[in-house]
């Protein structure tokens, strides 16, 4: 079976920077790092965390986007990878549990061909400042993640084998369900703990070469219930 879809994390993966973190470092009016620490401990779900952090952004949309596009660089191998994948009939989509609003502008600025984006929805108030975060791509029952990367993988597996590409803790649940996971940085430790057979990668040229190779798909762990499952 060949890969038919590649689902890619955005912050730190398709983009070389964690854009949300950059924005919080520059514009947050509260202790956003305390929320991150609580999320890492499992005391907060990502929905609670990113919603509270979004409310801390003390700037208008134009200022936030200008900072993101100036300071956050896309992986230079990502746009060519998307073009190659499209030529091969492979879908590339992004799955992000961040603020979401900066993704499309950064893709356009980097010349990335149009691709589906599965993420959270930033609202704006009458002064064009952050006015609440919605979760249109959350799980219909689980309240843990804002964007359910497990569900994003499962939706695409209806059409064929799915590769998942990530680097951080928020990518753990997508990795559990993908037919092949490409992992680096913090995601490697999660894969090792969870028993996910992964392919180490540095840039998207590595991923293209692996997909072009005859390597067999490692297969998914696919636990019956995601370990991040959270209900009210």
List the helices and strands and how they pair.
Layout (H helix, E strand, L loop, with lengths): L2 E6 L10 H9 L4 H10 L4 H11 L4 H11 L6 H10 L3 E5 L7 H7 L7 E2 L2 E4 L5 E5 L14 H9 L3 E6 L5 H6 L2 E4 L2 H9 L3 E3 L3 H9 L20
Parallel strand pairs: 1-2, 1-6, 2-3, 6-7, 7-8
Antiparallel strand pairs: 4-5
Helix pairs in contact: 1-4, 2-3
Count all strands and give the number: 8
CATH topology of the domain at 3-17 and 73-120 and 134-212: Rossmann fold
Counting helices, strands and paired strands, the structural category is alpha/beta
CATH class assignment of the domain at 3-17 and 73-120 and 134-212: Alpha Beta
Q: How far apart, in Å, are the first and last alpha carbons?
A: 39 Å
Morphology call? globular
How many strands, what sense, and barrel or not for the largest sheet? 6 strands, parallel
Description:
- With 232 residues, the protein is α/β, with parallel strands linked by helices.
- It has a domain at 3-17 and 73-120 and 134-212: HAD superfamily/HAD-like (Rossmann fold, 3-Layer(aba) Sandwich).
- 39% of the residues lie in helices and 15% in strands.
- The chain contains ten helices and eight strands.
- The chain has helices spanning 19-27, 32-41, 46-56, 61-71, 78-87, 103-109, 149-157, 172-177, 186-194, 204-212, and strands at 3-8, 91-95, 117-118, 121-124, 130-134, 161-166, 180-183, 198-200.
- The strands form two sheets. It has a six-stranded parallel beta sheet with strand order 3-2-1-6-7-8. Strands 4-5 form a two-stranded antiparallel ribbon.
- The longest helix is centred in the first third of the chain and has 11 residues, at 46-56.
- The relative contact order is 0.17.
- The mean pLDDT is 96.
